[in-house]
Write a structure and sequence with these properties.
Two copies of one chain form a homodimer. Chain A is α/β, with parallel strands linked by helices. Chain A is 39% helix and 19% strand. The first copy, chain A, is built from twelve helices and 15 strands. Chain A has helices at residues 12-28, 36-43, 47-60, 125-143, 182-190, 199-210, 282-287, 289-299, 310-318, 321-345, 361-372, 390-409; strands at residues 33-35, 63-66, 80-83, 89-95, 99-106, 111-118, 150-157, 160-162, 167-170, 194-198, 228-234, 238-244, 247-249, 349-353, 380-383. In chain A, strands 6-5-4-7-10 form a five-stranded mixed sheet, sandwiched between helices. In chain A, strands 13-12-11-14-15 form a five-stranded mixed sheet. In chain A, a hairpin with a 2-residue loop joins strand 12 and strand 13. At the A-B interface, helix 1 and helix 10 of A face helix 1 and helix 10 of B. The structure holds a DNA duplex.
Amino acid sequence: MPVRKAAATGPHVLRRMNVAAVLAALREGDTPTARVTDLASLTGLSRPAVTRALTELRDCGLVEFTAAAGPQQLGRPAQYARFRAESGHVAGVDIGAHKVLVVIADLAGQVLATHRAAVDEGAAGPQLFATVRAALTAAVAEAGVPLSSLWAVSTGTPGIVDRERGEVLLAPSIPDWAGLPAVSLLRDWLHCPVSIDNDVNLAVLAECWRGAAAPTGAGSGTDTRTDCLVFVQWGRRIGTGIVINGRPYRGNSAAAGELGFIDLVGDPDTRPGPRPADGMGPFERLVGAEAIHRLALEAGAPVGDAHDIAPLFAAAAAGDRAAVEAVERVAARFARGLAVLLLVLDPGRVVIGGGVSRAGDTLLGPVRRHLRSHTLVPVELNASVLGERAVAMGAVRHALDVAEERVTTTHQGVR
Amino acid sequence: MPVRKAAATGPHVLRRMNVAAVLAALREGDTPTARVTDLASLTGLSRPAVTRALTELRDCGLVEFTAAAGPQQLGRPAQYARFRAESGHVAGVDIGAHKVLVVIADLAGQVLATHRAAVDEGAAGPQLFATVRAALTAAVAEAGVPLSSLWAVSTGTPGIVDRERGEVLLAPSIPDWAGLPAVSLLRDWLHCPVSIDNDVNLAVLAECWRGAAAPTGAGSGTDTRTDCLVFVQWGRRIGTGIVINGRPYRGNSAAAGELGFIDLVGDPDTRPGPRPADGMGPFERLVGAEAIHRLALEAGAPVGDAHDIAPLFAAAAAGDRAAVEAVERVAARFARGLAVLLLVLDPGRVVIGGGVSRAGDTLLGPVRRHLRSHTLVPVELNASVLGERAVAMGAVRHALDVAEERVTTTHQGVR
DNA sequence: CAGATTTACTAACGGAGCATTCGTTAATAT
DNA sequence: ATATTAACGAATGCTCCGTTAGTAAATCTG
């Protein structure tokens, strides 16, 4: 029988609490350095207690003392403590069918290097894994830190992921990727916590952290203005990532946010036919990139070949009548589906990512307008500003959370 | 600038932590009483530390020592500590348009009294408030405890609620109820924390706690098997309460779970007409109790007058052809709407409440069948077993959480 | 029935952490 | 050069924990 309340088995518990509190105050303070007095008033501790905690943190390598930065105040100059964000690093890896993107950041979340590696069309799992290894090696080299400096690595990949076991269960777009024990291979190689998650779940974390209209204060955790943020990946397929109370919400079977499979159209009394073999959902077939391309063609609006729909939005922005009409229909359809999500979740903010979101306000303006007639409360709707880097940045955010654990519990800094 | 990590400003913090841990171990243990040795091994503390904590709790009146209950073991008989659940009580109040239901429970969640008061049709706010006061007075009298014994009171009411300010913003079904400062009036009267919430948000808490297929162990908190549980109120109107990680999820504007307003039907390219004046949403008009009544009439299935749809389900259960067909259509329509909720939230369990749920598996069987063709993962779907008491029981659960705060932080037991 | 055995409670001791207090140090201002 | 200011460092007292030794109250055994 587990007990939920933790018991304090000695004064050393106090020590750990206060070390953690001092470190948190130092990291979350609005200045990069802080005096002992500042930390004492922030934490409510006495000066000697703060000094003790800082000494311990300095011995761990997590804190260093510097001279005064600005003009000297009256009296004896104070020691300024600084969190050594460079004492550890994290990596966020976006493993996609076409590219591998690695972002290296220090413990403060400052990005040190970004490395992009193209993946050959149709490359299989083992080859992809080799690319990931090479990209990680190159990225840490660019950042100028050793591999052993990595405290946590998070990866994001499309498909269905078993986070507990660290395996990909289903990845239709990458042959032989599912079932590859990528996480344990990386863990054995790097000797640090490695995790894997669905790419959209990480993208939403990134939008929460550094995305559109998010607070820009360095070191601030996640967006606190909203209880809930939704990221909609709008491309050929449609999926959503959901953040509730600053943490990704995945549902009971890791199947939350499957907006692409909602079925809006048709008579309520006819039963649905058999599922098509392409694995796409009704809503994806209605307003996915392919559907938009087809719809534009039918309307006589300009489009590129394959599934290139950029010309449609360019033409609409320029005032082309047919293009504007087509965009209007796309927006109306999408708004009806998105409205369902908003009615259920009532998020404070929605961020649209994926290829279609590159159309920007040409498309999102009409979507906002249509939304108003379907929803009860207004919602902030923006295109993603992180673009291609969203997943890797979200992975960095998650890796930072894992590293945080190590910082606050064991203080295992590296000298 | 607030600091997130709490600092320990002295050894007394240890004391508080350990008192809380001992109390938690005592309350969550599988036996109603526990020996000092048991608590020591449960908490990881030493025997003297547990004794010290228990002494403090006894002085507060929260714990008492009793003799051994069962057969004597070898050696000196141990003192058995028991949590005095009767040292405080909570009340859960369901304030509806037709009734006020008060449930009194002790600190262990044991129900001591249930009092129901009918409310006259069209009774206005002030009169309703007087009924609440009278019902509370009667309920505590039935439970045999004084009003001053109430540690927390939670109320649930239909409509839109501002929980921060403790006011009802909109309550279409009860005249002059919105704007009445009911919470502060109750607080001034009872001198204890009083809160108000939407009724469905409380009902879902109750289902999580004591509902269908929930763990029945006394004193256990909330259902831990599922990350997410959804309660669908299916009556004339349709609304949902959502619990995520054991806490009600209300969304950014307290407008989450508005399933009644989703719009499934119709061509995706036509704009919706103006909203009807009755304030009902598209889905409510499609499968609400009124719609079911109308649908049954059209199909020639038996129904009662007004909006009584019980005969329809009785006939369907008996095998009446027209009734079965009508129920099938209702189930198909409802399943399509519910599927949207499931695709977005992926809950582990869904509980159906409200008047329509009284049809039981006659209706829910077909709903389950239709759901399978709309969703990706299977879900547990059950009718509520709490029925009319769901909201009041959820209010009790919430009041217990508030009381818990007082127990674990200030130990202000009453001798 | 008396002693051994088992088990649990009680008291005293040492260690660790925090707050408080006092003296010291290193700057600036006069 | 002296006064002032503000921060550092060491010493003291308090409270909490765990440990250990001693005592009390039952059952079991001869």
